[in-house]
């Protein structure tokens, strides 16, 4: 009885995947436009090794989740900055007789109060990128090695589009799970 091989254990053989002679791992991102002719003749850019599958999945996950977090944190920083720099009139204060009094003097209107610091605005994108990197490392590793194991067990070669699509799926799941009403329904 023959031994079982896996893409995750290169010491036990190459499995049932037939790696072409002279194969080299493509550089990242190596996306190509698949056509019907390319698909039937198996021409394209494919991944065969578990480490390459993991790298591609991790890089796409890091790029897509990092971009999402950076966009959101930049928008949040911009909102905080505009909130700190926008002048607002003091609200009207009700008095005992039911009449409202408004500040009339120019001095009370433009009081020189201490401005809040701007460092939280600048550090927010940095913190979000660090958090996105951690999320990407964990989820990209789990999904990348799961893909490598599944494709190795089935004896399939993996197109370089598959890690990109799984990175996109992870971003969409992250967006969907951020809505608290949806998660409470599920």
Would you write up a description of this structure?
It is found in: Membrane. With 186 residues, this protein is mainly α. It has a domain at 48-87 and 118-185. The protein is 56% helix and 4% strand. It has 6 helices and 4 strands. The strands form 2 sheets. It has a two-stranded antiparallel sheet with strand order 1-4. The chain has a two-stranded antiparallel ribbon with strand order 2-3. Strand 2 (93-94) and strand 3 (100-101) form a beta hairpin. Helix 4 (119-154) packs across helix 5 (161-177). The longest helix is centred in the middle third of the chain and has 36 residues, at 50-85.
Portion in helices: 55-70%
- Structural class given helices, strands, pairing? mainly alpha
Which strands sit side by side, in order, in the main sheet?
Answer: 1-4
Number of strands: 4
Inertia-based shape:
elongated
N-to-C span: 46 Å
Biggest sheet descriptor = 2 strands, antiparallel
Arithmetic mean pLDDT: 76
Low-pLDDT segments: 1-7, 105-110
Number of helices: 6
| Proportion of beta-strand residues | under 5%
Radius of gyration: 27 Å
Order of helices and strands: HEHEEHHEHH
């Amino acid at each position: 009885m023959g031994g079982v091989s896996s893409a995750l254990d290169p010491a036990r053989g190459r499995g049932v995947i037939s790696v072409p002679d002279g194969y080299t791992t493509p550089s990242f991102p190596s996306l190509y436009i698949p056509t019907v002719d390319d698909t039937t003749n198996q021409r394209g850019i494919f991944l065969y090794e578990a480490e390459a599958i993991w790298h591609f999945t991790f890089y796409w996950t890091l790029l897509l989740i990092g971009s999402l977090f950076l966009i959101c944190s930049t928008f949040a920083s911009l909102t905080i900055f505009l909130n700190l720099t926008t002048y607002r009139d003091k609200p009207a204060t009700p008095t005992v007789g039911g009449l409202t009094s408004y500040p009339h003097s120019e001095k009370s209107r433009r009081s020189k109060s201490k401005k809040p610091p701007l460092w939280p605005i600048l550090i927010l994108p940095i913190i979000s990128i660090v958090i996105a990197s951690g999320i990407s490392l964990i989820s990209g590793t789990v999904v990348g090695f799961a893909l490598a194991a599944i494709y190795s067990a089935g004896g399939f070669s993996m197109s370089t589009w598959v890690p990109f699509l799984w990175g996109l799926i992870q971003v969409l799941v992250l967006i969907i799970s951020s809505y608290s009403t949806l998660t409470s329904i599920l």
